[in-house]
Design goal:
The chain has 387 residues and is an alpha+beta fold. It has 3 domains: 99 residues, Acyl-CoA dehydrogenase/oxidase, N-terminal domain (Butyryl-Coa Dehydrogenase, subunit A, domain 1), CATH 1.10.540; 110 residues, Butyryl-CoA Dehydrogenase, subunit A, domain 2 (Beta Barrel), CATH 2.40.110; 139 residues, Butyryl-CoA Dehydrogenase, subunit A, domain 3 (Up-down Bundle), CATH 1.20.140. 51% of the residues lie in helices and 15% in strands. Strand 2 and strand 3 form a beta hairpin. It starts with a helix and ends in a 5-residue tail after the last helix. The relative contact order is 0.11. The structure holds flavin-adenine dinucleotide (FAD). The site of flavin-adenine dinucleotide (FAD) has 22 residues, from strand 1, strand 3, helix 14 and helix 15.
Length: 387
């Protein structure tokens, strides 16, 4: 199956990538897949998983060696996302790797003191990092966020709330977008807010999918945050948030296509096994065509993903193309999840079957990290598609 052979046949993977892929595959098969159903039903997973993930270099991927990372390139990130997807539970990826959205602003624009305080314990799996951008009043229109941070002596006083935040209950460090200036993108800053800050409370949220992922609403009731927790310069937070999105979208696209491939693999295995009308499901030409259509989309998405990752590794910033890649990947996931559940029949509707869960997890991918409509708008602007 392509799932087994694709990385080896791609020109982008070196022996180091393939060795990491093998380590990831063993890690997922040994430490995650056997527990994925139980964790999802329990709506959590053990915090020890962070330390184990750190030990195989997963948490440090793409972070500077100087602060406990291992400088892995984007192809390592793609491998990590797609091997993790094999467990069939997107909630594990979301929470286990919430630092990949929480920490980059600290790496890119944070002070050395903040880097030293946050990065090493997070990359060792001892502390958890989260990103708080979205608010109850909206997530797509980031420039219009309403949580305020008012200067008072050597502190900011933060008032407002955040919504749908991954690792929202159990994170130690929250990278939070606040309004320190006037309206619009020019008034936005990023603050590091720590668990235990007086006035900071959280409420857990129940979801359609990603059950084992920790998702919460955050409330800041006049929280006093020291000025040295400002990440980057005051009123310069919007650019740092936008920079975050490119890598996040490549990771989301890699994961979505990984889940699409799981749907294809599961459909193939099922079709070979399921007996009907004196033969097996795969004996029907319609079934083989469905599998071919799924494979066509998965392979096309993978080609786009790897080419764009290569361009980013060359120093290019193909923002519009990355937006379209995210849509391409989430639509491939949607198509494959729907077809695979259909081919499984009633079994595809049952809890504990990978494709049932993946089907429920399509929408969060099409909304989070930039909704499909926002992706199209941004791509059209980047490409100059206006009158
Ligand atoms: C499980 C989960 C985990 C999340 N984790 C995090 C996290 O860790 N940190 C964080 O900050 N956020 C997180 N989010 C929030 C996520 O990023 C937002 O849900 C997303 O950005 C959309 O924002 P919104 O939900 O406020 O929808 P809105 O911004 O209100 O948009 C609603 C809908 O309107 C449509 N729409 C939006 N803009 C346009 C447009 N320009 N043109 C046409 N239609 C449009 C889209 O269909 C969109 O889905 C998470 C969300 C979920 C569900």
């Amino acid at each position: 199956m392509p799932a087994e052979t694709l990385p080896a046949k791609s020109p982008f993977y070196t022996p180091e990538h393939l060795a990491f892929r093998d380590a990831m595959r063993r890690f997922v098969a040994g430490e995650i897949s056997p527990h994925a159903d139980a964790w999802d039903e329990a709506e959590t997973f053990p915090v020890e998983l962070y330390r184990k993930a750190a030990e195989i270099g997963l948490l440090g991927l793409g972070f500077p060696e100087s602060h406990g990372g291992n400088d892995g390139d984007l192809f390592m990130t793609i491998i990590a996302a797609q091997e993790l997807a094999r467990c069939g539970a997107g909630g594990v990826l979301a929470s286990l790797l919430s630092h990949t959205i929480g920490c980059p602003p600290i790496v890119n624009v944070g002070s050395e003191a903040l880097k030293q305080r946050v990065l090493p314990p997070v990359l060792r799996g001892e502390k958890i990092s989260a990103l708080g951008i979205t608010e109850p009043s909206g997530g797509s229109d980031v420039a219009n966020l309403k949580t305020t941070a008012r200067r008072d002596g050597d502190h900011y006083v933060v008032k407002g709330s955040k919504m749908f935040i991954t690792s929202g209950m159990r994170a130690d460090f929250y990278t939070v977008a606040v309004r320190t200036g006037g309206q619009g993108p020019g008034g936005v800053s990023l603050l590091l807010i720590e668990k235990g800050t007086p006035g900071f409370t959280q409420t857990p949220l129940k979801k359609m999918g990603w059950w084992c992922s920790d998702t919460a609403a955050l409330y800041f009731d006049n929280c006093r945050v020291p000025m040295e927790n400002l990440i980057g310069k005051e009123n310069q937070g919007f650019k740092a948030i936008m920079k975050n999105f490119n890598r996040e979208r490549i990771f989301l696209a890699a994961g979505a296509n990984g889940f699409a491939r799981v749907c294809l693999d599961e459909a193939l295995a099922w079709a070979r096994e399921r007996e009907m009308f004196g033969g097996r499901l795969i004996d029907q030409q319609v079934t083989r065509h469905k599998l071919a259509d799924m494979a066509m989309r998965v392979e096309a998405t993978q080609a786009m993903l790897e080419l764009l990752a290569w361009r980013v590794e060359q120093g290019d910033t193909p923002v519009g193309e990355i937006c379209l890649l995210k849509n391409q990947a989430t639509q491939t996931m949607a198509y494959c999840a729907s077809e695979s559940v259909q081919m499984h029949g009633g079994a595809g509707f049952m809890r504990g079957v990978k494709v049932e869960r993946i089907y429920r997890e399509v929408k969060v991918n099409a909304i989070g990290g930039g909704a499909e409509e926002v992706m199209r708008d941004l791509a059209a602007r980047q490409f100059g598609f206006y009158a």
